[in-house]
Automatic annotation (TrEMBL):
Substrate binds at residues 13-15, 21-24, 55-58, 112-113, 139. Zn(2+) binds at residues 94, 96, 109, 111. It holds the Pfam family Hydrolase_like. It is found in: Cytoplasm. This is D,D-heptose 1,7-bisphosphate phosphatase. The lineage of its organism: Bacteria, Pseudomonadati, Thermodesulfobacteriota, Desulfuromonadia, Desulfuromonadales.
Length: 194
C-alpha cells in the first residue's frame, strides 16, 4: 500500500481529553464531555480524519472494573456523540499495569502509553499513515506514545494537562487549551480550517 492510499488519523486519549477526568471512570452516569469536545470530533470527521481513541485503563488491571464495562462506556460515548454528527472510528484500550495488575493484567506490555503499541496496531488495522497523523492527550505518556509511533503530538491543558505541561519542552508537543483548540491547530496545519 503506498502513501497515497494510507489514511490520516487523530488519536485521542479519552479521560481528561474527551471527557472530564474522574478517577477510574467506568459508569455511564458519571460520564461528562469536556465542553466543545463533541463538536471538535465532528470537525475532524468532516475533514476526513479517522478518529481513534487510545486509552490506558489500569482500573481493569487493578480489578476495579472489567473490559466489558469499559466497552459499555465506549458504546455510551458513541451514542452521546451521535447528536453532534460525530463518531469514533475505533477504540483501543490497554487493560494492563506493570506493577498493580491482577493475574494476566499484571504486564509490562507494549500497549500502555507512553509506548506506541495501540497506535501501531490501529495503524496496521486501519491503513493509517502515522507520519501524517496526530496524537492528542493530557499526559506526557500520550505525547510519548505519539512521538514513538511517528505522529505529531499535542498536549491539552484539560485533565492533568496543566501539571503535565511543566514536564515537556516545546520540541516535544504543541500545547493547546483543549480538544477544540487542538482541532483548530490540526485543521489550520492541514490547510482546511473548517
Amino acid at each position: 500500500m503506498n502513501d497515497q492510499t494510507l489514511r490520516r488519523a487523530v488519536f485521542l486519549d479519552r479521560d481528561g481529553t474527551i471527557n472530564v477526568e474522574k478517577d477510574y471512570l467506568f459508569r455511564p452516569e458519571d460520564f461528562e464531555f469536556i465542553p466543545g469536545a463533541p463538536e471538535a470530533i465532528a470537525r475532524l470527521k468532516q475533514a476526513g480524519f479517522l478518529v481513534i481513541v487510545v486509552t490506558n485503563q489500569s482500573g481493569v488491571a487493578r480489578g476495579y472494573f472489567s473490559v466489558d464495562e469499559v466497552r459499555a462506556l465506549h458504546d455510551f460515548l458513541q451514542k452521546e456523540l451521535a447528536p453532534f454528527g460525530a463518531a469514533v472510528d475505533a477504540f483501543y484500550l490497554c487493560p494492563h499495569h506493570p506493577e498493580q495488575g491482577v493475574g494476566s493484567y499484571k504486564s509490562d506490555c507494549d500497549c500502555r502509553k507512553g509506548r506506541p503499541g495501540m497506535l501501531l496496531r490501529a495503524a496496521a488495522e486501519h491503513a493509517i499513515d502515522l507520519r501524517r497523523s496526530f496524537m492528542v492527550g493530557d499526559k506526557v505518556a500520550d505525547v510519548e506514545a505519539g512521538r514513538r509511533a511517528g505522529c505529531r503530538s499535542l498536549l491539552v491543558l484539560t485533565g492533568y494537562g496543566e501539571t503535565e505541561a511543566t514536564k515537556i519542552g516545546p520540541e516535544d508537543a504543541v500545547v493547546v487549551a483543549d480538544l477544540a483548540q487542538a482541532v483548530d491547530y490540526i485543521l489550520h496545519l492541514e490547510g482546511m480550517n473548517l
